[in-house]
Design goal:
- 49% of the residues lie in helices and 16% in strands.
- The protein is an alpha/beta fold.
- The strands form 2 sheets. A 6-stranded mixed β-sheet has the order 3-2-1-4-6-5, sandwiched between helices. It has a 4-stranded antiparallel β-sheet with strand order 7-8-10-9.
- Strand 7 and strand 8 form a beta hairpin.
- Helix 2 crosses helix 7 and helix 5 crosses helix 8.
- The relative contact order is 0.10.
Length: 333
């Protein structure tokens, strides 16, 4: 086996970040593109050193005419490498990026659970991280959105999603695949500029690279890495503040025979905290009561009650909940 600097880097990353333990079962998501082929080649080469049991999973979204041939290509690679192969095909074509991503993670989780894999591993790179940061920034987001892709996160009970290539750019995975003559399957949808992420990849990133910073992808990925640690710290601090301010009470709803559960926040406790933590507390509270992610406007109108006059109240949030100031308390009911 040829041991390249990329092998050494990934080996160090996995060990220093404690991404995997020895002798674990890893399910590798392989699309057939350069990033996923680079990933599976690296992990196969490290397999004997760390005792992993690797499997390959491919998700066919059925949104390209060649998707079935793409799946066959990945299956043949798995056979060549002597690796277990799992295929999940969408019942109906999936035509939106968000829907495809959700379906893909559900499918990968189901395969992992059914076959006792502890980890799902994807080939997201520093380039993906930079593009996600820009995509979220353009749409409007806070630090949580700007931290973009994280190294690992739990998908469900007992299964961890891991991204070992977040310090590797797409140009590096391309060079690696060329060096080892890996048979890349070119995905035609990656060139389709109707998708916002493709416009960022094909038009915005090259413009920024040429006119502002030749290393823009790595620079943005590093920014996301810094923000990840800060977001983790702020979320923990906000949780502690919320625990100190919150009180769950049960009152009687005059219009119903059932008791009304009211969530109460102590304004005196919250007033001592910086605005950044106040907003995070309110977002955490709203995440409990809203079915969709709270918007900036939702968070701001709830945060405003921390210093609002007594009896102030919000208009209804989605689902009908209302927040009202009652002395030292903000009551949601």
């Amino acid at each position: 086996m040829v041991w390249t600097p990329l092998h050494a880097k990934i080996h160090r990353t996995i060990r220093s970040r404690h991404l995997f333990e020895r002798n674990q079962r890893l399910l590798i998501a392989v699309s057939g593109g350069q990033d996923s082929l680079c990933l599976i080649k690296l992990l196969l080469d490290l397999q004997s050193k760390l005792g992993w049991d690797l499997g390959i999973a491919h998700c066919d979204h059925r949104w390209r005419s060649d998707s079935e041939a793409n799946a066959d290509h990945v299956e043949n690679l798995a056979k060549t490498w002597g690796t277990s192969f799992y295929l999940e095909t969408a019942i109906a074509p999936i035509n939106s990026e968000a829907a495809a991503r959700d379906w893909r993670y559900q499918a990968l989780s189901a395969i992992a659970q059914a076959n006792n894999y502890q980890y799902i591993v994807t080939g997201h790179t520093a380039s993906d991280r930079a593009e996600t940061l820009l995509y979220n920034l353009i749409r409007g987001t806070g630090a949580d959105g700007l931290q973009a892709l994280t190294w690992q996160r739990p998908l469900n009970t007992g299964i961890m999603l891991v991204r070992p290539l977040l310090e590797i750019t797409r140009s590096q995975t391309e060079q690696f695949c060329q060096e080892f003559k890996l048979p890349i399957w070119e995905d035609s949808t990656n060139q389709d500029l109707q998708y916002a992420r493709n416009r960022i990849r094909q038009e915005l990133i090259p413009y920024l690279r040429q006119n502002f910073n030749p290393q823009v992808e790595s620079a943005l990925a590093q920014t996301a890495e810094l923000l990840q640690a800060e977001v983790e710290y702020l979320e923990k601090a906000a949780q502690e503040l919320r625990d100190g301010a919150i009180l769950l009470g049960v009152g009687d709803d005059e219009d119903s025979l059932a008791p009304l559960i009211a969530l109460r926040l102590n304004r005196r406790v919250l007033q001592k905290a910086p605005l950044a933590l106040q907003r995070r507390v309110m977002r955490q509270v709203l995440q409990q009561i809203l079915t969709d992610a709270p918007s900036f406007e939702h968070i701001e109108k709830l945060t405003a009650l921390i210093i609002a006059p007594n009896r102030s109240q919000t208009d209804p949030f989605p689902g009908g909940a209302i927040a009202q100031v009652e002395g030292d308390w903000i009551c949601l009911k």
